[in-house]
Design a protein that fits this description.
The complex is a heterodimer of chains A (305) and B (291). Chain A has 305 residues and is mainly α. Chain A has 17 helices and two strands. Chain B has a single domain, classed as MetI-like fold. Helices cover 66% and strands 0% of the residues of chain B. Chain B contains 14 helices and no strands. The radius of gyration of chain B is 24 Å and the shape is globular. Classes of the chains: A mainly alpha (305), B mainly alpha (291). Chain A: It is a multi-pass membrane protein.
Amino acid sequence: MEKSLWARMVEHKYMYLLVFPLLVFYILFEYVPLYGLQLAFKEFNFAEGVWGSEWIGLANFQEIFLLDDFWTAFRNTVIIALGRLIFEFPVPIVVALLLNEVRTARLKKFYQVVYTFPHFLSWVIVSGILVNFLGSFGVLNQLLDILGFEKVSLLVDPESFRGLLFGSSIWKDMGWGTIIYLAAIAGINPSLYEAASIDGANRFHQMRYITWPSLKSTVVILLILQIGNTMSSGGSGFDQIFNLYNPAVYEKADILDTYVYRRTFSVGDSYGTSTAVGLFKSIINLALLVAANRAAKRLGQDGLY
Amino acid sequence: MKPKANGADYMIHILLMLMAVMTILPFYNVFITSFADPASVVKQQFYLIPTSFNLSSYRMLLDGSYVGKALLNSLIVTVFGTSVNMLVTTCGAYALSKKSMPGRSIMMAGIVFTMLFSGGLIPYYLTIKGLQLINHYGAMIFPVAVSTFFLIVMINHFRTIPPSLEESAKIDGANDLYILFRIVIPISKPTIAAITLFYAVARWNEWYNAMLFMTDTDKHPMQLFLRNMLADVTKMARDDMGAAMMSQLNQGYPDGIKMASVIITMVPIMLVYPYLQKHFSAGVTLGAIKE
């Protein structure tokens, strides 16, 4: 006989106690800010707070859509996201395939341990390391100087700055990215390789016809995840850009997240319009995620939710 | 039967070794810069082979009262932050791993939704301000009390525990709290250790919330202290830190001091890295939200 809802709830009373702090967290730090999103349609009034501020319809959006800086940031967000897909995304796959060919277990471990370490450092630390290495008096320039080349100022040159973003991301996260692919490779049935080598397949053939096909579903899922994350601050690389950029490269490096930050804390009276930029970004992000998830399901993958 | 190494093997090794060198070299350079005689760094000579060993950068840095405070703040945030992380995540995940709990699917939907849509910077800022957390250590702890990703990893882990274990304890009259703390947590040690480490690293790396909410520089964690130093935020330059050096150079902090700070900030991560390494796979579990 089915127990009543109340009886089942009483039975789980300690479970509700356990989940309570978690729910408080999500309500306070996720749902209260969602409620604050109404500021995008209001003229923020410090004295009256979010609730008491006056509704002004879409005026904030009209205002930001007229700003050149907004469109620069929007364009940069899209271009940098595409660049990450093209330049950053394939690297861990290639590295995993290469590592898989290393037959000495200890050496393979060594490579993996070295490549993965930078992932655990903050972008604050990594920016310090990069400035020391690539700055105008850094090792790279000292070397170029000795070899008789012109010095390069990678950190302040708008032309090379996006390249620096892609390169430094690869440097930091390439090892971390390989872990998931190596796990997928480890799950491949070894008898497949044995059968293939009896049939005369060389190592390249094995990589091409056994390893790669088994990685494909992981690649598709991660690709979709990354597309869905394009606009989120994690996916767009706020931490990285914020710690590396400077006024000299804003035109090429300023993304919506960094733009909102600067507007909020350096332009006065901009809470309403900055929230509007944030909302604009969140809506595009949601649309991308939903589209990406649908694409995953159409490809016969499980999707994310 | 081991096949002999051929040309392709050597190519692969050369490539991988080159990548390893490129990963290590910048660290090596930070290291030798921090231990160099400041004068030899200032001269901008090619500095790949250390010509001096000198602790003066560290001495100058540690003489100031700021670094000690910043390290202490980071320690406080890491210890309390990780404790809060683990308590809230473990308890919540255990409850959410029970499909029989009424309301569970609504809670899960509400949690997953936050991964898809968020309020953004200003509503977030106003929320923290409204909670009176400005200049409160809690601002670096509570807003990051749960990572949805680790929560889901934990829920999935608890699902793998055979129900018979809990059922037999229930028959003996144990309640859910007793089962969680006395039976489930002890057998989940590897997963809990892994997630604790990942959380601790994230808390140690905290700078963003501190930058937003800690206007009092005495409460800055090490990462934010380092960030301000790297950006040569001169108002940070208190007269008790390398002041003589700075006025002498008249150009912000010397490289040696900056790099000594990088090293000091990095040391705790280096110390836990051997343990982190064992748990890599826990941090990359995929397809987590599937029911």
